[in-house]
Amino acid sequence: MSGIFKSPAFENAVVQFDRACESLGLEDWLKERLRYPQRTLVVNCPVRMDNGKIKVFSGYRVQHNLTLGPCKGGIRYHPDVDMGEVASLAMGMSWKCGLAELPFGGAKGGVSVDPRELSLNELERLTRRYTVEILPIIGPNKDIPAPDMGTNPQTMAWMMDTYSMTEGYTTPAVVTGKPTLIGGSLGREEATGYGVAYTIEDALRHFGKTLPGSKVAIQGFGNVGTHTAIKLAEMGCSIVAVSDVYGGIYNPSGLPVDKLLDIMKQKGKIQEFKNADKITNEEILKTQCDILLPAAIGRVITKENASQLRCKMVVEGANGPTTAEADDILEERGIPVVPDILANAGGVIVSYFEWVQGLQEYYWSTDMVFAELQKRMHGMFEKVSNYANEKRVSLRIAALMLGINRVAQAKKLRGLYP
Ligand code: NAD
After folding, report:
1. pLDDT-flagged residues of the chain (< 70)
2. 207-229 exposure pattern, b = at least 16 Cβ within 10 A, e = fewer
3. pLDDT score, position 176
4. How high is the pLDDT of residue 3?
């Protein structure tokens, strides 16, 4: 059974799952069921490229669990996407939705492609074909995709349009993270990053520290990285290092976030900003700072570099950036890790708001979205930190235990079919 998911990402997700299950006392069948996805779909998408040739791209949609409601999870466009990675991310979504008490199960999708190598027209054709291929298993009451790494509101607009055209009527609630003009929620674009910033504030307070003046290093300057940087700078933090896929920059006196955003808009590469030292994506992880925020790909903090980190806290903006072995090293070193399913849950929380708005055709103000997001993020941090103290476990194990247990108890209540 596990063979098709074999990958370092999935193995890591299973190790974390097993660790969290140690003191949950779940029955064996429940653990066995939840260790693997409920349903997986592999698709191959032929796409006509601008030069007239046809290229075939492999894609996936994995639904880990549908117990608490329709599935929810992003679509990733990245060359490293494979079944194991997508399955691990889908599993993480189940625990995240459980922890956030949302009426969703976890899913994830992706296409193995480097989106930088495709023109806009090629990306549109790929997205529409991929949507058609996964059409049988998605829908507002079945499975609701959202953006993830390499995809964005435009991708969601194409997915929503493709689905709506085949249904024969506009169906905004089939995806979240759409542009607001076609039913997206105000605040969805900022939601994950702002949620990360609210969680950093709570985590610092929890460990007896304060936010203003804290130094932050951010790996990945896309949706999550930029919006976290904007919010943290507004709250008085100093952003000392940032990076994107091409490399990073470092200035111990702090970087001007507004100018970094301008550079990204104009040149698309953070290293085009001149008033800073150039660093690599490995070096940024070892920057001297209060908070290290991995906000790009998975498994970047490993047993090889965990002993060299010089931060006081890791906050996971990305999904799965820390391996289980690195977790052990960081725990031994007294460096707390605020886990992904807690820190970056703001995205799926506002996606939930967007889905509700789409179903009701009643749209919220930005103030309403952020007030409700902030309330839920603070509530989640309090719940996880209290549980971690009570059970004497790390924040990661506490968050996973809460998320897994909610799904497991719901499964028990519903019982087996047939
Ligand atoms: P994005 O595509 O908007 O940005 C990704 C950033 O990472 C870009 O700056 C890119 O240049 C950089 N990057 C890509 N490959 C890299 C590499 N090998 N090394 C260093 N940097 C690299 O993606 P995003 O939506 O910001 O997602 C980032 C992470 O956050 C992912 O792990 C994603 O699963 C997670 N996440 C995103 C959301 C969301 O709402 N977008 C929600 C929860 C979690």
Report:
1. 1-2
2. eeeebeebbbbbbbbbbbbbbbb
3. 98
4. 85
Pocket probe mutation, ligand 1, options 99, 199, 297, max atoms within 8 Å of Cβ: 297
Same fold, 2-172 and 189-335: yes
Task: Give me ligand 1 centre to Cα 317, in Å.
Answer: 8
Residue 151 CA, closest ligand 1 atom number: 2
Q: Does domain 189-335 have CATH number 1.10.10.60?
A: no
pLDDT attached to residue 2: 63
The helix-helix angle for 346-360 and 366-391 (nearest 10°) equals 140
Domain boundaries, the chain: 2-172, 189-335
Q: Report the pLDDT value the prediction gives residue 28, as an integer from 0 to 100.
A: 96
**CATH level 3 topology of 2-172:** Rossmann fold (3.40.50)
Report the length, in residues, of the chain: 418
Catalytic site residue from 72, 96, 108, 231: 108
What pLDDT score was predicted for residue 243? 98
